[in-house]
Amino acid sequence: MDLGLSGKIALITGGTSGIGLAIAQKLASEGCKIAICGRDKIKLDRAGASLGPAEAKGFVADICKTGDVASLVGDVTRVFGGIDIVVSNAGTHLPGRLSEVSPDRLLRHFQTKVSGAWELARHVTPVMAARGGGRFIVVIGQAGKVPQANAIASTTVNAAQHAFVKSLSDELAPSNILVNAVCPSRIKSPLTDALTLHNEVYFGRSLEQQETKWGAEVPLGHWGTPEDIANAVAFLASSRAAFIVGANIDVDGGHQRSIV
Questions:
Q1: pLDDT class for 6, splitting at 50, 70, 90?
Q2: The CATH number of the domain where 163 resides is what?
Q3: What is the pLDDT of residues 221-243, one digit of tens each?
Q4: Domain assignment present for 141
Q5: Rounded to an integer, what is the distance from CA 77 to the centroid of its chain?
Q6: Residue span of the structural domain in which 62 resides
Q7: Which of 17, 120, 132, 249 has the smallest set of CB atoms within 10 Å of its CB?
């Protein structure tokens, strides 16, 4: 199926590893020109080298910093001539209960995942509107739909991301800028490799045994890969998804139990 992405210019934040890198690689394989953003130049260079013959460039920026976001959008526009697709993927999971997460860590988490996406949208909207439209896709972890006592910070911030996506989609749809979310769960990546799942902490099992149990919680019987998320993002970025807006699409093998 031709997704109609050839020649499109895509900006992916958090694009140096895991899900973000898989998204960059998928969009590159579909013919997109790729801008990846991260804070570490060495990681950016390594990620760029993995994109093969695609026209790609890494941009050093901290999404938490308003000035960095403005410069990022300006630099990508100047280098590539515009921006058609933004994938807001920067940020990580912040575990911990109420007494374990400091206000500073909570604020940084919010700035990365909500304020950063806000600034991206604010600066890229005129660029996309001038090109006749675009796609703005936010990657949102499962805690936004499935509140967890041991992940109260991510639960709160991810829920704010959902509200942001829905409100922004209403505002930008008349300009043919389609805003949607992709919601991963049970995806094997560098992020999840470092996590301890709350329902496995006390089982005293080996990693192999724990992973077997984790897979059993997924109706498909196994965890997914970053490429599974990348495929969903590519579809939403494509001309095939021209009537999908304000949606949040679960990519989780059926794991999440939320009905909204």
A1: very high
A2: 3.40.50.720
A3: 888 999 999 999 999 999 999 99
A4: yes
A5: 20
A6: 9-188+225-249
A7: 132
**Residue 126: CA count within 13 A, CB half-sphere:** 7
In a domain, 255, yes or no: no
Q: What is the pLDDT of residues 150-176, one digit of tens each?
A: 999 999 999 999 999 999 999 999 999
CB 73 within 8 A of CB 128: no
Domain annotation covers residue 194: no
Helix ranges (DSSP H) in 111-187: 116-130, 152-172
CA distances from 127 to 7, 21, 178 (A): 16, 24, 14
Euclidean distance between CA atoms 216 and 213, whole angstroms: 5
Crossing angle of helices 66-80 and 116-130, in 10° steps, is 30
E strands, 28-141, are: 33-38, 56-60, 85-88, 134-139
Give the Å distances, CA to CA, from 74 to 71, 82, 126, 179, 255: 5, 9, 11, 21, 39
What six digits make up the tokens of 66? 């308003």
| d(C-alpha 201, C-alpha 170), whole Å | 41
> 212 in helix, strand or coil?
helix
In angstroms, the CA 167 to CA 206 distance is 44
Confirm whether 236 is domain-assigned: yes
Q: Which among 228, 247, 226 has a CA at the least distance from the CA of 236?
A: 247
Q: How many domains does the chain have?
A: 1
